[in-house]
Amino acid sequence: MRAAVYHGPGDVRVEDRERPTIAAPTDAVVRVTHTAVCGSDLWFYRGERDREVGSAVGHEPMGVVEAVGDEVRSVDVGDRVFAPFLASCGACEFCRKGLHTSCVNGASWGGANGGAQGEYVRSPHADGTLVRVPDRHADDEATLRALLPLTDVMGTGHHAVVSAGVTAGATCVVFGDGAVGLCSVLAARRLGAERIVAVGHHADRLELAAEFGATETVLARGEAAVERTRELTDGGANHVAECVGGAALDDAVAAARPGGTVGYVGVPTEPFDVGAAFSKNVALRGGIAPVRAYADELMADVLGGTLDPSPVFTHTVALEDVPEGYRLMDEREAIKVLVEV
Amino acid sequence: MRAAVYHGPGDVRVEDRERPTIAAPTDAVVRVTHTAVCGSDLWFYRGERDREVGSAVGHEPMGVVEAVGDEVRSVDVGDRVFAPFLASCGACEFCRKGLHTSCVNGASWGGANGGAQGEYVRSPHADGTLVRVPDRHADDEATLRALLPLTDVMGTGHHAVVSAGVTAGATCVVFGDGAVGLCSVLAARRLGAERIVAVGHHADRLELAAEFGATETVLARGEAAVERTRELTDGGANHVAECVGGAALDDAVAAARPGGTVGYVGVPTEPFDVGAAFSKNVALRGGIAPVRAYADELMADVLGGTLDPSPVFTHTVALEDVPEGYRLMDEREAIKVLVEV
After folding, report:
1. Are residues B267 and B161 in the same domain?
2. What does the pLDDT read at residue A78?
3. What is the pTM assigned to this prediction?
């Protein structure tokens, strides 16, 4: 089969690889039809995080079940499915409480499972991992494009606002105008937020944020962004979704109202000044998003026509053009790249 | 009047000072009868935090109202009262939501208000700040000693476990065997925690923790403490109260179960590795404790005989001996020192 493989910073190639097969009775093999390039793929692409040379890449698979192990019960050959960026068993303590990212049987894409930016992947714990798309929607291209973000960015954006405690009537500030930040705006609107202030530094992306439901946008970064959001919210918001990572967590805390909550999904890389949160009792909730926990409820809304994150896919490439997809993401020409396999 | 005054690290003296008087119609003047030396007083005593030389010290006042301004309605001359470590108006947005430490009219003890380790203090916003002890309990010495910790350490320990989400049946780990950690154990028991693991490094204080309700104690620090608590809780507790400060926040996160909550009241001084919280979705809640919010409910239990934090007062000194009280605290001979004024 053909699959995208990491060869070093800035060097992703599409090559022939061995096709994964059923190894355990709980496995399924999925023929990938749609996948995506993720902002987090840029970490290794930019050399900011180590990755084994020769490893298959991609972690947002959608496709059709090709084979199932003997113990798989929830999906069968021919089913349209998608899967989160991590596999999970669905049955352990943490999966049962909706924290699939802490699954005691959890597994990653890549390695012997194959990467999602390839023709086939093996899904460990298929019953827990794969989300089946109902047959009547299984071949509708627009629906599939709207469901694909549920593998990662839509579930992650949703986790940010859920963690921030957003409920109907809330005022919420969203830091970040990448795919996750934009999905966070969608998720906040879906939860009934009354005011959604989107903060970013790309005018075109903030336009999309407004289409997604942001009632106000702030085109600024760092201190200027904090100052403007504090003005707009009379001293800070009770709910702040942090979808950037790095030092943005400090900005999010600064933009929070005393007693408020920051829901964070951006990966923290900088030392964080917890003293600022301490002095005004701002809670920090969130972390790596258990998107599997949210897949069913978000899919119901996509299928019902009330949720459509597909506009984050500003560009589409074929599998052979995945390297171009990385370039588009790296140079910020694309918000997110869809890959047709 | 006589009052304790800061003269530099290791140098607190009792001197003659001008007695505070009513300055605003919302003020009250309180003749202090009981106060305490606090672990946080050691920050300036040890030179770890700057403080103005010549400033009056002490922030845990209990006494009898001596005078009230024209607009004061909730207390009158002769009432027995106590007050939290910060004054608050009781009427602003943040006081109304129970976050008195973010009061927009908040004020500190010391300065022109006088320090609580002195014969008189002026309470700004007396209606919001002062807690009146019902007359029938107003002169019972044992009751007053049990109420005095509500000015700071008992409310702070309570805030830690409330922030950690402790409810009936919970398993809770408490980091810290100082007065706040011990009060946190009491608070966890009061909230119905089923298992309370107290972590500290003083055998005698852990004995008191056991008397206060700890079901298990761990005599260890740092990594060894984390390892033992994780063993005891099968991989981490859903509720961790952090009552130490500094680097203990990292230990508290390490001892938390994926998806759990750390309630922290220890003042963070070290860079905090938020990545550890991110990877397992451990929430951080807490901060400087709004002890005024908890004073009435905790007082009800003290007066009802079901709550008694007074054993944290291992030593009692007279006002003239406040310097000795600091020494006892600094050398860890005392858990907490009560001052009879």
Report:
1. yes
2. 98
3. 0.96
**ipTM value:** 0.96
Q: How far is A311 from chain B (nearest CA, A)?
A: 28
Pick out chain B residues at pLDDT < 70: none
Secondary structure of residue A136 in the 3-state scheme: helix
Residue A271 to chain B, least CA–CA distance (Å): 6
* Token pair 């053909």: residue: A2
Query: CA-based angle B246:B251:B252, to the nearest 5?
Result: 95
Q: What is the pLDDT of residue B268?
A: 85
Give how far A102 is from chain B: nearest CA, Å: 6
Sign of CA dihedral A123, A126, A131, A134: positive
Minimum CA–CA partner of B263 in chain A: A283
Q: Do A268 and B275 touch (CB under 8 A)?
A: yes
Whether A208 has a pLDDT exceeding 90, the answer reads: yes
Note the helical H segments in A171-321.
Answer: 179-190, 203-212, 222-232, 248-254, 274-279, 291-303
Same domain, yes or no, for A208 and A267? yes
pLDDT, position B246? 83
Encode pLDDT of A96-137 as tens digits: 999 999 999 999 999 999 999 999 999 999 999 999 999 999
Mark yes or no for CB contact A284/B283 under 8 Å.
yes
CATH of the domain at B27: 3.90.180.10
Q: Are residues A26 and A99 in the same domain?
A: yes
- With beta carbons under 8 A apart, name residues in chain A contacting B94: 258-259
Query: Do B313 and B270 fall into the same domain?
Result: no
Ordered DSSP codes for B226-245: HHHHHHHTTS-EEEEEE-S-
Cβ within 8 Å, pair B285-A283: yes
Nearest to B258 among A102, A264, A275 (CB): A102
Per-residue pLDDT of A149-158, as tens digits, reads 999 999 999 9
Q: How many CB pairs under 8 A join A and B?
A: 88
* B304 lies in some domain: no
Contacts of A280 in chain B (CB under 8 A): 102, 287
- The residue type of A186 is L
Q: Range of B62's domain?
A: 2-139+309-340
Residues B216 and B265 in one domain: yes
Tally the domains of chain B.
Answer: 2
- B10 and B130 in a single domain? The answer is yes
| Same domain? A125 vs A183 | no
Interatomic CA distance for residues A283 and B162, integer angstroms: 13
Residues of B with CB under 8 A from a CB of A: 94, 97, 99, 101-102, 163, 249, 258-259, 264, 267-269, 271-272, 274-275, 277-288, 290
d(CA B104, CA A341): 58
